[in-house]
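User: Can you fold this complex?
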Amino acid sequence: EVQLVESGGGVVQPGGSLRLSCAVSGFSFRNDWMYWVRQAPGEGLVLVSHINGDGTGTTYADSVKGRFTISRDNAKNTLFLQMNSLRAEDTAVYYCVRSLYSWGQGTLVTVSS
Amino acid sequence: DVVLTQSPLSLPVTLGQPASISCRSSQSLVSIDGNTYLYWFQQRPGQSPRRLIYEVSNRDSGVPDRFSGSGSGTDFTLKISRVEAEDVGVYYCMQGTHWPPWTFGQGTKVEIQ
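Assistant: Here's the predicted assembly.
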């Protein structure tokens, strides 16, 4: 069974940092492109970042470029999102997504003073 | 960036009746490889999104056959042949042809009237 379990969300002050993790199981992680998608409260879906299978290719939404960094550890079947210089508008549920198909349950990030 | 425009944004439906959601793209979604990377996702209340359709018209595993996708170029449609209570939620189209960024439509809220 494919599982994606996000962790690392929480409340952080503006300008602060958080590192999200997504532990995966049930599939060959190193072969799949992975994504982070976020959903602000009551809003729609926005794809924040993607990474290819071996970690050599990444992309970012303009709204997070230069502040967020996606990475992966294929030996530990884990995806990461390092989020720096957080802003109130980054408040959202962050989903880990495999191949635009399988979704985790999401982790809530709240940026507030 | 490709803009996806869904209509309607709110869709009251009667149980057992058909429903249809439109997704229009600001540019053709036919890729240079000849495929069209248009997806449909369902998000039930309080749940993570779930992919229903990939590449315009292919149902994902476990998706009831009352869901169907169609279209080409810039105009696409998700149809539910007979709405059931479990179909309540928000439906999103998404394009993966012109990336980055991958982009979603605004979402269509389906509710039982």
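Chain A touches chain B at residues 35, 37, 44-47, 50, 59-62, 95, 100-101, 103-106 (CB under 8 Å). The mean pLDDT of chain A is 97.
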